[in-house]
């Protein structure tokens, strides 16, 4: 089996991510306006607390009436209650807006993911796509619920606090702005530095997920070829890379926090010294100086919160860019003038194919399959069998040559999936009932049609049986029967089976061979045969060797010819010694 080199799915640029976010938010403009207004109200409510405390200080120094102090205290209490109410409502509105936007994004991503060419998924590895539609969605969802609302409120607090300082006295405001150059410089550094770090972290986690999936999914093969140490080493390498990426992001956060704390200390000293001299010069009251100090101290909490949660917001931004990258992938090209095949015959002419810049896998393959004929493709591992099946099914576009079904090139066929179907040894069982799984092939099928498809492939299942995640774990044989029943319901004119009985083991092999024969009855079929008993019952056998067809003919003729196929058959038919 030929494996294409890994190449990750695209990641959107920062500008495109912002643009996509704007497109998603635009339908919810009223909700956005209400959200922003509520968050501003929450920040304004807290803005009045320091001046009220300053007036209490002045009233106490002047031995003011107790009633005035009581009234100011009630004002502070009212401001705190308003702050709590508006903050809670703002968080709810932000989360509500975010979830609606996230739901729209999720739908766009899933729709595009279902349309992503299988060749692109294979190059990237299924782990990359799974990480995006699973892990990245979770990261953004958590950011929407927790980090983003808090960061937005904190940003408003910081901005309005600086406004409050200016209203008190412009000199106190200037003192409070002493650490601003440091804040701006370190924030720009952190945003510029952390964005790529979090993107690298998400990418490393995708690679780790892919290596884990490959190790678990191919565990039997790994053990059979005694590659356990090498596979564990690969997983360990990807895991270490993911940990290193996380540590680099954490180190940037630590440096950011250290500089921010130093800037805060500088600002407090500037406010206290300036307030002391202004009070001594009788320019401002002690209460005003106190209010200025309280204003500045109020910056500590929102800045600390942003420090704590900005990394989550940055991580969510990196995850969003990865999702937008998938959502923006071009849709499969539709034929300018779609045509319908005249019959189910297949013709491959001069097929050459290479994965990206790798070596050529197929070298000028010519093959014709008559309507209704069943052809078995055999050959040693690495001969190019899987690649040939993928090219025929339209999964890969050949580097050179053409593929036609019913005298119509694949690229001109309207709704290609209605005419050709590919069933591989890697079968997915969706969470739900057997009926749900079968209706993936024909949504409008009746229960009677579903039951008939199961009967055709001799699958001992009930339509109401719950399978997949959270249900019955189907054996390899039962899962493949389910896939073959889907093939029956889809009714393609041409079927390609890529070692579809290889995972069953000896116990289920005969069962699957009967099921495959029944599913292929009456349709043109190309069977990538792992078990040569399938080749023996085919109308014709094609032998591939190093990307070229070296033999073609009925089973009996090829055995009698004494060539490559005869050697394969002799090895297959030889008695097995325990």
Short description:
This protein has 578 residues and is of the alpha/beta class. It contains 20 helices and twelve strands. The chain has helices at 14-25, 29-47, 49-61, 66-115, 118-124, 126-168, 170-176, 180-217, 219-224, 228-280, 286-298, 300-327, 385-393, 434-438, 447-456, 476-490, 505-520, 532-536, 555-561, 564-573, and strands spanning 346-354, 360-369, 374-378, 400-405, 408-409, 420-424, 432-433, 466-467, 494-498, 524-528, 540-545, 548-553.
Total strands: the figure is 12
Total helical segments = 20
Average pLDDT works out at 82
Question: Strand arrangement, largest sheet?
Answer: 6-9-10-3-11-12
Just give the CATH class of the largest domain: Mainly Alpha
Give the CATH topology of the largest domain: ABC transporter transmembrane region fold
Major sheet size, sense and barrel closure: 6 strands, mixed
General form: elongated
- CATH homologous superfamily grouping of the largest domain: ABC transporter type 1, transmembrane domain
Membrane topology: Multi-pass membrane protein
GO molecular function: ABC-type oligopeptide transporter activity; ATP binding; ATP hydrolysis activity
Keywords: ATP-binding, Cell inner membrane, Cell membrane, Membrane, Nucleotide-binding, Transmembrane, Transmembrane helix, Transport
Main location: membrane
């Amino acid at each position: 089996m030929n494996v294409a080199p890994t190449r990750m799915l695209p990641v959107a640029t920062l500008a495109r991510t912002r643009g996509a976010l704007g497109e998603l938010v635009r339908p919810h403009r009223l909700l956005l306006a209400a959200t922003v207004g509520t968050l501003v109200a929450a920040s304004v409510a807290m803005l009045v607390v320091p001046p009220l405390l300053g007036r209490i200080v002045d009233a106490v120094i002047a031995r003011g009436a107790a009633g005035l102090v009581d009234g100011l205290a009630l004002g502070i209490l009212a401001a705190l209650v308003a702050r709590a109410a508006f903050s809670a409502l703002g968080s709810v509105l932000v989360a509500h807006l975010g979830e609606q936007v996230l739901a729209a994004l999720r739908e766009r991503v899933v729709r595009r993911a279902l349309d992503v060419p299988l060749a692109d998924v294979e190059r990237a590895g299924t782990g990359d796509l799974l990480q995006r539609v699973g892990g990245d969605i979770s990261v953004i969802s958590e950011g929407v619920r927790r980090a983003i609302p808090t960061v937005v409120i904190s940003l408003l607090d910081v901005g309005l606090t600086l406004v409050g300082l200016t209203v008190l006295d412009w000199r106190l405001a200037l003192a409070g702005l002493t650490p601003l150059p440091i804040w701006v410089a370190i924030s720009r550094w952190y945003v510029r530095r952390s964005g790529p770090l979090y993107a690298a972290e998400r990418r490393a986690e995708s690679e780790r997920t892919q290596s884990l999936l490959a190790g678990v999914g191919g565990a039997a093969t790994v053990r059979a070829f005694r590659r356990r140490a090498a596979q564990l080493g690969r997983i360990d390498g990807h895991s270490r890379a993911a940990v290193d990426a996380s540590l680099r992001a954490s180190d940037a956060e630590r440096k950011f926090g250290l500089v921010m704390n130093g800037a805060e200390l500088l600002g407090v000293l500037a406010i206290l010294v300036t307030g002391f001299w202004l009070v001594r010069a009788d320019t401002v009251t002690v209460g005003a100086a106190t209010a200025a100090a309280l204003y500045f101290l109020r910056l500590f909490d929102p800045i600390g919160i942003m420090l704590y949660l900005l990394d989550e917001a940055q991580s969510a931004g990196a995850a969003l860019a990865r999702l937008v990258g998938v959502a923006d992938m071009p849709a499969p090209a539709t034929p300018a003038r779609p045509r319908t095949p005249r019959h189910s015959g297949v013709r491959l002419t001069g097929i050459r194919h290479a994965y990206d810049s790798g070596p050529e896998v197929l070298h000028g393959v010519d093959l014709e399959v008559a309507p209704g004929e069943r052809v078995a493709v055999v050959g040693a591992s690495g001969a190019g069998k899987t690649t040939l099946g993928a090219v025929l099914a339209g999964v890969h576009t050949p580097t050179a040559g053409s593929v036609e079904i019913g005298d119509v090139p694949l690229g001109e066929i309207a709704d290609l999936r209605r005419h050709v179907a590919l069933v591989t040894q890697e079968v997915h069982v969706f969470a739900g009932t057997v009926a749900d799984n079968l209706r993936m092939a024909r949504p409008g099928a009746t229960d009677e049609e579903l039951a008939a498809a199961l009967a055709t492939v001799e699958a001992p299942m009930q339509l109401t049986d719950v399978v997949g995640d959270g249900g019955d774990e189907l054996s390899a044989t039962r899962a493949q029967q389910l896939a073959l029943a889907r093939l029956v319901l889809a009714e393609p004119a041409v079927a390609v089976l890529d070692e579809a009985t290889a995972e069953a083991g000896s116990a289920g092999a005969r069962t699957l061979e009967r099921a495959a024969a029944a599913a292929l009855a009456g349709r043109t079929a190309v069977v990538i045969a792992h078990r040569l008993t399938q080749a023996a019952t085919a109308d014709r056998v094609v032998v591939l060797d190093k990307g070229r067809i070296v033999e073609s003919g009925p089973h009996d003729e090829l055995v009698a010819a004494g060539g490559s196929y005869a050697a394969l058959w002799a090895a297959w038919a030889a008695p097995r010694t325990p």
